Each structure stands twice: as structure tokens, then as C-alpha cells.
Amino acid sequence: MKQAVLIISYFLMLSGLIAQAPQSFNYQGVARNASGVPYVNQQLSIRASVITGSPGGSIEYSETRTVSTNAFGLFNIQIGSAGATVNSGSFAGINWSLGIKYLKTEISINAQPYVNLGTTQILSVPYALHSKESKDLIFPFSKTGASVTDLLSISNTDNTPSSSAVRAITTSGRAFYGTATSGVAAYLQSNDGTALYAYSPNKTGIMGISNGVTGTGVSAINTSGGLALGVNGNLRIYGGNTNPGAGKVLTSDASGNATWQPSASSVATIGFIANNPAQGGLQNLPNAARYKIHTATEDFDGSNNYTLYNQTPASTFTASVAGMYRFHGKVQISTSGGTVLNYADLYLVVKKNNVETDVAYTLGGRNVISTDIEIDHSVYLNPGDQVWLSELSRADNGTNPTLTRAYFSGYRIK
Predict the structure, then answer these.
(1) Rounded CA gap, 243 and 124, in Å?
(2) Residue extents of the structural domains in the chain
(3) Measured between alpha carbons, how far is 154 from 166 in angstroms, rounded to an integer?
(4) CATH dotted code for 271-412
(5) For residue range 210-232, what is the model confidence (pLDDT) as tens digits?
(6) CA distance 393 to 165
(7) 103-154: per-residue pLDDT in tens?
(8) Could you report the per-residue pLDDT of 44-83, keeping only the tens digit for each?
(9) pLDDT tens, residue by residue, 257-294
(10) CB 16 within 8 A of CB 68
(11) Which residues, at least 6 apart from 200, have a Cβ–Cβ distance to it below 8 Å?
(12) How far apart are CA 411 and CA 271, in angstroms?
């Protein structure tokens, strides 16, 4: 088919089908031959292309349709609607806001090569498609894009304190929800005001949650010497490993991890006072052999750390917490019938990890009938360490020396 054989007159019907899917706009034309005679009741192939920027610009969308003319050579198509035999690109993907749009039309009769009928600027109708997108948002709304700066920027230049650039309202769900794989889900900045103001009349104004072992639910930082956190009102710290309780105080370890701990005034006193030799006030001691000092009664035991002679372990203090402890012991060892007591010594014994050690000792009288021996010593103990008094005495005639008096006390210094 020669180009001179065909003349086509066409015009755009400015009635784009905007309000409903699929989006499209009407194209109507009359096909005539070179003599002006219309092609009546004849099948044609129409190729329409939407071009951006200039008549010779890039094609954003192209479609090919088969149509039939009527008794006047008139035909109608809806560009972008269903029924195209060939499509290139997506009509819905046309960016109507970018550049001037042109419509290029080509026609083929009886399978002859396409003849270019020209390129004309598109005016009103498809831009209404863009107006539809920009006039309002249809919800639910979702868009994806990529930008090295802001993908969405909203500015409110009004200076009224109650004005807002963005306002989000919900009945019971989340008014604003932001997620970030590794960056910042929400970044707020104010040069001379409040970057974040959260208000809830009955519930929680701000809640920070972190599920990571090393994560932080809420972090407050001030790098200029000011306050990182200011609280005006009641304060509550609870949950996690903080172990709250009545009367406790907040303390931290070397890494700054805070926990609630009993205050010094609320901690039971770790200490004891034990008196009197066991077995009726007198205790026969083995001659020239080490022997534990057994007490009969307790005047005080603040935390039940001392066990008497008839308990297990007998006549022993057991540390429940680590710390520095002070112990005081005083005994009297005697003989009867004028027998000479060659020697009598008093020892403070500590058992750590099943190893017994004499941490202190005092030598008593030599070659006497009776001697008073006293010991006073401080030692650091770990939980489970045990402490007791022990003696070593010898009577000249091989008889048993006698423990006539006994006193043993101890307490945690710090």
C-alpha cells in the first residue's frame, strides 16, 4: 500500500475513562483513500504509541489493534483498554507527570506495511489520569521508590504552634508505623523545640521494645554536657533482670547494668554470738590433740549462719554472702587437782573449698593451772566458706584439760 493512497482524519475525544479501571482514552478516526473516498466496512490495523518529551522521543507505551470501519469509514478504539493484539510497555505504567506526551498513529490495510500518519501532542485527557493520582489517595495505598534523599517530603510553613506537617489518627491501632532493616525507623529533629512529643491521657506515651539480647528499648544520649534523661513525675523501673522489691535500691555493675538490690538497712544482719561450753558447761578436751571448741547456746544469730554443737556442721559459722568478716573468740582452759597445764593455744580455722587453714592463733599460758586465751581476726569469705575455733592443750600428767569458759562471735563488716 502506497502512502499516497491513504488519507486518515482523526481526532481525540476528550472523554478519557478515568474514574474506573482499566484506564484508557478514546481515539476516533476516518480512513479515506488518496481521492478522499472512505474505506467503508473494511478491517484495519491501527498501531498507537505514547511518546515522551518530543515527537521523536522515547516510546513509553505502544499497542496494536484490529478494527472495522462503519458505513462512513469511521472507527473507534480505546487506547489502554483490553483487546490489543500487541502491547509494548504498560499503559498503567505511563508517568503522565513526566514530560510532554505525544501520540503517534500508524495504519495498515490488508496486511500491508504500516504507514506513519504523524505524531500529535496529547493535551487534556491523559493528564487527567495524572490529576487523578495527585488529587487524592485511594486507600489502602502503597508505593515503592528509591531515592538518596527523601522519598516523601511534606512542609508546613505555618508558624501556628498547633499546626502540623503530618497528622496520623487511629481508633485503636497504630497511628504511625515505621520499620527499618538496619537503619532508623523514625528520625525526628527540632532545632529549638521538641523533636518528639508523645501524649497519652490514660496509657503509655512512649514505649520502646527490643527483643535482642544486647539491644536497647529506649536510649537517651546527650553529647554536650546536658541531661540525657529528665523525669518530671513518678518513676518506675521493673521487669527483666532488675528484680524489683519493696525497700530495694537501684545499683549497677561495672558495665552500668542496673538491678534492684536490698538496701543496707533492709538486709538481715549477718552475725552471731555463741556462749558457754557444751556438755553442761564443762567440756573435757583431748590431751595434746587438736579439738573444736563447742558452744552450748546462742545469744544472737541474725541470719541463721551459725550452727551449735548439736547441729551440722557442729559449732560452725557458714558465710552466705561474700564480704569481709570479723571474728572474736575467748576461752578458758584449766586442769584439776593441781596438775600442770604445759600449754594451751587457740586457733581460728577457715575452710575454703574443703581445705582447712589456721588463719590466726594465740598462744596461751605455759606450765600453769589455768589460762585465758583470746583471738580477734578479720578475714574475707566467699559464700559457703566455714569458720570455727579450735584448741590444742596438754596436761603434764596426761589427764584431760577442761574447757571452763567459751565465747565465739562474728559478723560481716562489708
Answers:
(1) 70
(2) 3-133, 231-267, 271-412
(3) 8
(4) 2.60.120.40
(5) 776 666 767 778 777 777 677 77
(6) 92
(7) 999 988 888 898 888 899 987 655 455 555 555 566 777 778 787 777 777 7
(8) 999 999 999 999 999 999 999 999 999 998 889 999 889 8
(9) 777 776 655 556 899 999 999 876 678 999 999 999 99
(10) no
(11) none
(12) 4
User: Grid coordinates standing for 177?
Assistant: 508505623
Q: How far apart are CA 221 and CA 229, in angstroms?
A: 8
For Cα atoms 81, 101, 121, give the angle at the middle one, nearest 5 degrees.
100
The grid cell for 295 is 558452744
What is the spatial distance between Cα 320 and Cα 304, in angstroms, rounded to a whole number? Answer: 10
CA gap 320, 216 in Å, rounded? 34
Q: What is the arrangement of strands in the sheet containing 74-79, beginning at the earlier edge strand? A: 6-12, 25-33, 74-79
3-133 and 271-412: identical CATH topology: no
Provide φ and ψ at 413, rounded to 5°. Answer: -80, -50
Cα dist from 393 to 187, 315, 338, whole Å = 80, 19, 16
DSSP 24: B
Residue 314's Cα: distance from chain center in Å?
52
Query: What's the fold here for domain 3-133?
Result: Immunoglobulin-like (2.60.40)
Interatomic CA distance for residues 48 and 116, integer angstroms: 10
Question: What percent of the chain has a predicted confidence (pLDDT) above 90?
Answer: 42
pTM for the whole structure? 0.42
How many contiguous H segments (helices) and E segments (strands) does the chain have? 1, 22
C-alpha distances (whole Å) from 246 to each of 88, 260, 302, 320 are 74, 10, 20, 22
